[in-house]
Amino acid sequence: MRALAEFIMRGRTQAVAVSVLAVGTVFFAWIGAAAVALVTLRKGSTQGAYLLAWTLLPAGVIALQGSDLGPLTTLVGVYVAACALRVGHWPLALLVISAAGLVLALLMNTVAVEQSQQIADMLAQLAEQVRASNPQVEMPVLNATDIAGMVGMINAWTVVLSLVLGRWWQAMLYNPGGFRSEFHSLRLPQAAVIGLFVGIVLLVSSGEWANWAMVLQVPLTVAGFGLVHALAARFGLGVGALTVFYVLWAMLLPLRWLVQLLAVTDSFIDVRKRLPVRSSGG
Question: Where are its TM segments located (predicted)?
């Protein structure tokens, strides 16, 4: 990864080559978006916009073909989020990412509604096959609006992944250890938490757009991850403990809610300041 980051930062030609080729594959579009994030974070919004313009060419072709809007919205979301992060605000970057996810959900529910419906029909057929082989299994019935929300959520996490990778590359090359300390101190302001909570409640209570609330849960989850990593460092827990945590988080819904609750709690009481400092000696 370091070699790739160094190659990207070697010049415009190298950065364009990596990002355009990655976006063109669709599957590795998040790598191209991470390149845009790295250049924007290190060299500024103008240089980032130059690279973004090039990467939008293959992303635009993919979108016009009707196959996937994800690369297009991921690139724009990462660029804007990187601009926000460049001025030193992870919370603002995370809010931008949620906004990009909601925009994609809206596009999937309007411009690309046929694609959303096709996915919903495919999942409905799969659910019928599962119920036919095992009637005791209950499968949720999803419509096109539900699918749009899920796509927006997946896109938001893709943008998070790309931005985190770009920031990690930047720290690895120019500020070793900087990303770790920055991530450990990530804490959402109270106004952002209240706004996210209100948005989640409104979406869930609407019924039709309930799945879209998952997009607004992304900043809370990322902030919760930051606190978990900070606590792990404070109590001397290693990579193994964090690996177990992420496996359990992926498997257990209550743990996902707990992580978000931790982020909310931290926003109001600053958990890190209330913890004892770990002794370095015996």
Answer: 15-41, 87-108, 147-168, 188-205
